[in-house]
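Researcher: Sequence recovery benchmark, item below. Answer with residues only.
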């Protein structure tokens, strides 16, 4: 059994996997874009127009009036000109979707930006956009259809407000747009490919802190093998070199610019570590509560400058994934990696795997569901 516990190897495999998915997706999109456009003909509107054309013809032949002759000529030429305009309109019309905020907190309101592009001099009163929304972590899909006007030779931007009530990766995609002619006779469906992603992280509410009195039992001394090659400190200032400072603290780039040795003034962090295991088991609501509690607990340790080892069971790799949390950036990156995992049903197997795969951990904090709500439980291993 292969165990993938290294952060570097995980990121390498993750990036390679994403690149393979991107290549396959591009190939599918090229094949899809080669297919002809679908055309929808609105029979009722055409029938009504023919009735109007017949009435105008009857009035002209009965009255022999120049005004009715002019109206009849316009009614005959209008559909031909309308279809020609629709052809150029469909070629010049496009849509682009972007997310101004790459990351956002749960239970907050964000915006998705729709940019309607029209390179032609024609216009349309009805451009239908099929917007698909998916939370890839919970496999939750939904969609909506937007009907917007398309202005001639101009770009139109519309911001759509969205409230994010669940954690995860929200993917917004538009695969097709439908452009309708001014008379409403024909609708042309055009294929497009635009995607936007938003990472929704748990809210970091400092006022809702967790009582971590008993969590000290889950803290162990940092292993020497883990500390080797890592500097468990934060840079608080940069100052001039004083005899006795360590050479490893010299800021070489800044020293080269100023022609004087500058050193990084560091604030040491704790040499202890808190091991936290996040269970990704249960229904969507349960996992969402677990992630929210885990984010809050780790945030508190980061504020206290306590080194955290964050673990979770990966169904895809059949191993424990491990991240070293020393600051908020590490925390956000770790949760972004969690969103690519699979949710499993059996919560007890995580503890069993910990006993068999990680027996060296004498105690750890397990973030799981207990008595119907998310809780931080201290687990002591024999």
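Model:
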């Amino acid at each position: 059994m292969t165990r993938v516990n290294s952060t570097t190897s995980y990121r390498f495999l993750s990036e390679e996997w994403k690149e393979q998915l991107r290549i396959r997706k591009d190939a599918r999109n090229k094949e899809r874009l080669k297919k002809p456009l679908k055309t929808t003909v609105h029979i009722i509107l055409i029938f009504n127009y023919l009735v109007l054309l017949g009435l105008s013809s009857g009035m002209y032949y009965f009255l022999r009036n120049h005004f009715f002759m002019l109206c009849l000529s316009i009614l005959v030429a209008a559909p031909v000109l309308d279809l020609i305009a629709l052809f150029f309109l469909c070629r010049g019309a496009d849509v682009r979707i972007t997310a101004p905020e790459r990351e956002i907190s749960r239970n907050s309101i964000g915006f998705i930006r729709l940019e309607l592009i029209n390179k032609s001099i024609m216009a349309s009163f009805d451009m239908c956009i099929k917007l698909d929304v998916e939370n890839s972590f919970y496999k939750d899909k939904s969609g909506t259809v937007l009907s917007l006007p398309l202005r001639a030779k101009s770009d139109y931007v519309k911001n759509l407000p969205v409230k994010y009530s669940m954690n995860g990766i929200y993917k917004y995609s538009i695969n097709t747009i439908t452009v309708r002619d001014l008379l409403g006779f024909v609708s042309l469906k055009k294929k497009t490919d635009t995607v936007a992603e938003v990472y929704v992280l748990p809210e970091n509410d400092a006022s809702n802190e967790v009582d971590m009195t008993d969590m000290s039992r889950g803290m162990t001394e940092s292993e020497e093998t883990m500390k080797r090659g890592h500097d468990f400190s934060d840079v608080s200032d940069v100052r001039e070199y004083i005899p006795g400072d360590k050479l490893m603290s010299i800021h070489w780039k800044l020293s080269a610019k100023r022609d004087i040795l500058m050193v990084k003034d560091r604030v040491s962090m704790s040499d202890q570590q808190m091991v936290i295991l996040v269970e990704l088991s249960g229904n969507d609501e349960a996992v969402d509560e677990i992630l929210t509690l885990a984010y809050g607990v780790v945030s508190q340790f980061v504020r206290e400058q306590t080194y955290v080892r964050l673990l979770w069971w990966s169904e895809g790799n059949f191993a424990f994934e491990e991240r070293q949390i020393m600051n908020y950036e590490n925390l956000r990156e770790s949760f972004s990696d969690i969103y690519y995992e699979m949710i499993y049903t059996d919560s007890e197997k995580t503890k069993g795997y910990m006993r068999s795969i990680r027996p060296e951990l004498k105690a750890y904090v397990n973030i799981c569901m207990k008595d119907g709500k998310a809780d931080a439980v201290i687990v002591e291993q024999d």
